[in-house]
Amino acid sequence: MLNAKIPAGPLEKRWEEYKGHVKLVNPANKRSLEVIIIGTGLAGASAAASLGELGYKVKAFCFQDSARRAHSIAAQGGINAAKNYQNDGDSVYRLFYDTVKGGDYRSRESNVHRLAEVSANIIDQCVAQGVPFAREYGGLLSNRSFGGTQVQRTFYAAGQTGQQLLLGAYSALERQVALGNVTLYTRHEMLDIVKIDGKARGIIARDLITGKLERHFGHAVLLASGGYGNVFFLSTNAMGSNVTAAWKATKKGAFFGNPCYTQIHPTCIPVSGEHQSKLTLMSESLRNDGRIWVPKKKDDNRKPADIPEEERDYYLERRYPAFGNLVPRDVASRAAKERCDAGYGVGSSKQAVYLDYAAAIVRYGKIEAGKRGEHNASPELIDKLGKEVVAEKYGNLFDMYAKITGENPYEVPMRIYPAVHYTMGGLWVDYELMTTVPGLYALGEANFSDHGANRLGASALMQGLADGYFVIPYTIGNYLADEIRTKAIPTDHPAFAEAEKQVQDTIDRFMNIKGTKSVDHFHKKLGKIMWDKCGMARNEKGLKEAIEEIIALRAEFWKDVRIPGSANEFNPELEKAGRVADFLELGELMCRDALNRRESCGGHFREESQTEEGEALRNDQEFDYVAAWEYKADGSYELHKEQLVFEECKPTQRSYK
Amino acid sequence: MKWSQFFNTSIGKKLLVGITGLFLCSFIIVHLAGNVQLLYNDGGKGFNTYAAFMGHNSLIQFIAWGLKIVILLHAIVAIQLTFSNRKARPVKYAVSPGNQTSSWYSRQMAIMGSILFIFIVVHLSDFWWKFHYQSLPTVSYEATGEPIKDLYTVVQFAFKESWLVVLYVIGMIALSFHLIHGFKSAFQTFGLNHVKYNGLINFVGVWLFGILIPLGFAIIPVVIFFK
Amino acid sequence: MEHYNMGLTLKVWRQKNKDDQGRFETYQVKDISSEMSFLEMFDVLNENLINEGKEPIAFDHDCREGICGMCSMHINGRAHGPWAGTTTCQLHMRAFKDGDTVTVEPWRAAAFPVVKDLTVDRGAFDRIIEAGGYISVNTGNAVDANAIPIAKDKADAAFAAAACIGCGACVAACKNSSAMLFVSAKVSQLAQLPQGEPERATRALNMVAQMDKEGFGSCTNTGACEAECPKEISLTNIARLNREFIRAGFTYEK
Questions:
Q1: C212-223 burial string, b = 16+ CB within 10 Å, else e?
Q2: Do C68 and A74 touch (CB under 8 A)?
Q3: Closest residue by Cα to residue C126 from A51, A170, B183, A188
Q4: Which N-terminal stretch is annotated as signal sequence (chain B) (predicted)?
Q5: Hey, which chains touch B, using 3+ CB pairs under 8 Å?
Q6: Bridge partners of residue A265, in order along the sequence
Q7: Which among A4, A72, A81, A85 is positioned nearest to A40, based on CA atoms?
Q8: Is some CB atom of chain C closer than 8 A to the CB atom of B201?
Q9: Residue of C39, C65, C134 with shortest CB distance to A175
Q10: Shortest Cα distance from B212 to chain C (angstroms)?
Q11: Residue A506 — very low, low, confident or very high, per pLDDT cuts 50/70/90?
Q12: Nearest chain C Cα to B185, which residue?
């Protein structure tokens, strides 16, 4: 059994107690303690800035050309916080409860409660940094509701919340760079962890411009390298998002938690053809006002406008009257897949459902007309006013849809389909966010901790910033306080040399294959296996097949991949090859984890475990644990379990009906 | 930031160009008002009296010298900026956007300015230099008493030369485009961009400084030429 | 929307590294779907090049949804191609027709040296932000988020400026390679918020000084940056930067 080092005492007092008794490092000692941070997204940038402010010597790494480009930037909808500004009954407890329930009782209560506690501080911090959240006319912050909750606790900046939050963290980070507390290494990719005497003591990084390998020492190493959704090739992640940092850590002894928990987001723009390189998310906030439907008739090829109201099946409203179109993501995604698989899908591929704004336009148009005293407004005026309101709220999303599809979503219902979006699984961490390797931490999406088997909308930004701004600055002190006597270890230490040699060998191996197929060829094949057999619905037979197929594909990859150019120059194909090689190993582990978990929970749906109505059916007796996998050898993993204890939220069958 | 540093920044330099530019704008209004007298049918009396007054009033002489310094300052700073702007793009694009993203005259301020500068040199050496430093025929009017230089006749004579008229027209076309962009650009450089006033600034820039004034200046040599 | 396939002639800038001279290479691509994005068309081209044993074209890209600011191509003379308010990754092949010749160049600016092919180094932007593009507030120093109300129009204007993605299209589009739109977007965002007030003067002074130091040109108000900005950042921000800078220059004591 794994020990998560959860503080004793009542749930709501634990973080307070912890902070009160955690070891501190005095300012003079902080100056000689070095911390390496991988990734500059919300978690990484906020951690780098906060630790720099505290006086630690921080080195931050990102593979992009600037820290500002990390994929947190693409988050659209918003960030949750238990501020209760709307006076609608929100509280820390409710946010905590919603998150545990939304995660289908597979997350750690203590972590989630802490997350809910610090959520309010995040909003304060961001506003102080100049993050321009949406405001009401009175000058106070605006909120909206988001899938899976019944209160309005989501703060947002149009459809660009992630961008604004990241730029806030990025500017705080750049401020520390200017002050000399943080050194930034852009276009650098971490390729291995260096362990000395069992502790994480540094990394090997490749300068992506020159191809040179570099050794960097740190008293502690923080991985804030994001999620691994790109294992599916097609996902809403950025092209460069990868698992490499987390995977190298896994191979150096960090356990990987719940790898099979992936979130399929219900509102994405459907695949248009073989050329597709990534999928684009349409913010979940669209479900606040849009209605989702398919025709009641199978293979109905009429235009949406020609299908009369009574021949439309608003299947979410029908199946889940209490939450309607606002059910959590996993539920909405599966419902869309169910309809399409049953033959009711729309569009040329039949793999899409409609997201319709016609009703919202009329509703808003009437309200707006009312405000202007136009009580007998013509339908044209209502339509015009309604479209203006919708444009104000969702304009950038509608524009994006129009650019990608060439269709006007104000006139024609949008076509949407679920796509891989977020990975709840990640490196296993204890209460202090430390992995099973001492001195190695994981933050944000890279860890497994707070979202259980399903993440609620607007919670990822909250978690990333909570980890970076408000958790790690405390918990890292508890470790580093014991490291003040450790002098910086010179990088000519044998452990560094050994790690660098291994990385170099792998690169040489890549370059010497000189095969016939591109990296993308293999990535696409892997993605197809994963999507078909370890995607929205999984079963034993499929998963077993997938494991065999992935092993075969991996062997073929190492025999036949072609990487042009050389290793000592800017070589994007070589970068991709390294990432895909890691995905080819992770994919197998995901399937093994999914196979092991013979229950349905959150984003993990095992066809063998469902209710008569087709809803996910958990098995709390057997599976209320975190599956943490220890890497033994290639293709060989040992399962460790962390028993989940639910003191406050008693697991029940989730119901959104 | 010290003044020397401030006026060495790109915005500081732009500010100098803008201030000097608007000063020159105010000058050309006065200049045109005076020169319109060349078209009066009074045998040059009004114009010559005006020229004599301008040439002898010491305050105006002081301003006139200031004007020349301002022109030089405007040109020198603008040339500095132009060179550093060129340096900012050492390799040019093979395909340029043409007028899709900006108006051609907004991009050609340096060319227009250079044409104007040549024009101003010719203009000054033709009239101002002659008026001040060469002996010209004189005329006497009752009002002034003493004989004054007959610049009017010099002008009438000069504009019988077709190449000079063409040069003046070209100079005024350059002035037009230089000011259509330059006038409103100066306000933008000062930070004065406001929806309530942009319309007015644009209107004055285009109609007064871009069309009316250059047209007024250009008409004079043309009319004299054809008289 | 009718879909169609097309063949194109591509003239692409190839440059091995920053020291290489660089030159155009011409490529043909066939069966390009009008539904592809411009970068997906490049994926096809690169896949072809790899299969032919040649080196693929290096180009920056990441999120492919128009927000990370990484993609950066100058397409037929236009930063991010012919569509207004669009990044290269969001440009779709519907913008072209069968038989078109498309010339693709990197951003051209002394301050953005070419790294390889179509990839440039935009580190200058980070250094400008380091010079003052932030509010100095350490974690934990903040008061309650609703303690200071901010008028909605101010907040909206600050947001509109903050929408800048730092892609560098403004520099690429400007005949002077000026970074004024980028700098003004950040200065403007923070100048309009009460939280930005304490550092208002130094921010404008330092960021402009750094901008000049990086070797960007000056602003001649042609408006090309605004026309090409994928986030449609307004020229009013440049006016505000000028105002902030002049105000600071005339009044700030140090």
A1: bebbbbbbbbbb
A2: yes
A3: A170
A4: none
A5: C
A6: A419
A7: A72
A8: no
A9: C134
A10: 23
A11: very high
A12: C221
Closest CA to A396 of C87, C37, C23, C56: C87
- Looking up tokens 């190695």 gives A440
Using the predicted structure, report yes or no on whether residue A168 has a pLDDT greater than 60: yes
Q: Which residues, numbered 198 to 227 in chain C, qualify as contacts with chain A under a Cβ-Cβ cut-off of 8 Å?
A: none
What's the rounded Cα separation, in Å, for the pair A241 and C89?
Answer: 16
CATH, domain B12-82+105-226, list 3.40.50.2020, 1.20.120.140, 2.120.10.30, 1.20.1300.10: 1.20.1300.10
Output the pLDDT for position A148: 66
Whether residues B97 and C218 touch (CB distance < 8 A) is answered with no
Annotated catalytic residue, options A14, A206, A329, A597: A329
Residue with tokens 């002659």: B130
**Do C246 and B92 lie within an 8 Å CB cutoff?**
no
Strand order in the sheet with A625-633: A426-427, A256-257, A625-633, A636-643
C174 Cα distance to chain centroid:
11
Separation CA A279–CA A26 (nearest Å):
48
**Through-space distance between the first and last CA atoms of chain C, rounded to whole angstroms:** 60
Residue B184 and residue B204: Cα distance in Å, rounded? 9
3-state SS of chain B: helix, strand, coil percent to 5?
75, 5, 20
Which residues of chain C lie closer than 8 angstroms to B83, CB-CB? none
Same domain (yes/no): C168, C246: yes
Which range of residues forms the domain containing residue C152? 122-251
What band does B6 get if pLDDT is binned at 50, 70 and 90?
Answer: very high
- Whether C74 and chain B come into contact, CB under 8 Å, resolves to yes
Tell me if residue A329 is catalytic: yes
Work out how many domains chain C is built from and give that number: 2
Which residues in chain B have their CB less than 8 angstroms from residue C216's CB?
10, 88
CATH architecture assignment, domain A492-623: Up-down Bundle (1.20)
Report the alpha-carbon distance of residue B43 to residue B51 in Å, rounded.
14
Q: Measured between alpha carbons, how far is C238 from C245 in angstroms, rounded to an integer?
A: 10
- Confidence (pLDDT) at A159: 85
Residue C79 and residue C11 share a domain:
yes
**pLDDT category, B144, cuts 50, 70, 90?**
low
**CB neighbours of residue A226 within 10 Å:** 31
**Mean per-residue pLDDT, A89-100:** 96
Does the structure show a pLDDT above 90 at A652?
Answer: no
What pTM was estimated for this model as a whole?
A: 0.96
Convert the pLDDT of each residue in A244-284 to its tens digit.
999 999 999 999 999 999 999 999 999 988 899 999 998 88
Q: Does domain A265-419 have CATH number 3.90.700.10?
A: yes
Tell me the sheet residues that pair with A628: A257, A640
Q: Are residues C54 and C93 in the same domain?
A: yes
Radius of gyration of chain A (CA): 24
Both structure tokens of B219: 């008409």
